[in-house]
Design brief:
Blueprint: E1 20-22, E2 28-30, E3 38-43, H1 50-61, H2 63-68, E4 71-77, H3 81-90, E5 97-99, H4 104-108, E6 112-113, E7 124-125, E8 128-132, E9 138-143, H5 153-162
Parallel strand pairs: 3-4, 4-5
Antiparallel strand pairs: 1-2, 3-8, 6-7, 8-9
């Protein structure tokens, strides 16, 4: 068993594990490239599913507010770049949606949801939000074992407000 599969969820104050994942245009994106700005990492189970669509659209609709608080938004799912491209175009998402198709990052972050929708061995991301400061340290985390629950968007904004310089 690899050490990545034993990772636990990063705690407040921990440095977020770095990663490199493809965006919908197959361009590799690294977390470390976002240093210097606060970052919201929004992991979601499945593109175009009802709750994931609601969550990503809520982030899309509040992006101006989130940017005013100094934050980037990045969505991450285990869906392939092609599915994520369709999802971002179809839902007019105005932030990167990255593909953790190898499921390495959800292991690093300790947020593997096993057997999504009772599909044996189909592991997806638990719906999770990590807010990182300018140095990629976790200042807020929320992880749900229930894929039907959306995050508390006001808590995310409050974490960003508290972290304002």
């Amino acid at each position: 068993m690899s050490s990545a599969s034993l990772a636990s969820v990063p705690n407040i104050g921990d440095k977020a594990p770095d990663f490199e994942l493809p965006d919908p245009d197959m361009k590799p994106r690294k977390l470390s490239d976002l240093r210097g700005k606060k970052t919201i990492l929004a992991f979601f189970p499945a593109a175009e599913s009802p709750v994931c669509t609601a969550e990503m659209c809520a982030l899309r609709d509040s992006l101006d507010q989130l940017r005013d608080l100094g934050a980037n938004v990045v969505g991450i799912s285990v869906d392939g770049p092609f599915a994520n491209k369709f999802f971002t175009q179809n839902r007019h998402l105005n932030f990167p949606v990255l593909s953790d198709y190898k499921r390495d990052v959800i292991k690093k972050y300790g947020i593997v949801m096993k057997d999504l929708a009772a599909l044996k061995d189909y592991n997806a991301a638990k719906r999770s939000v990590f807010v990182l400061d300018e140095n990629s340290k976790v200042i807020y985390r929320w992880v749900s074992d229930n894929p039907l629950v959306e995050p508390n968007y006001n808590e995310i904004k409050d974490a960003l407000k508290k972290a304002k310089k």
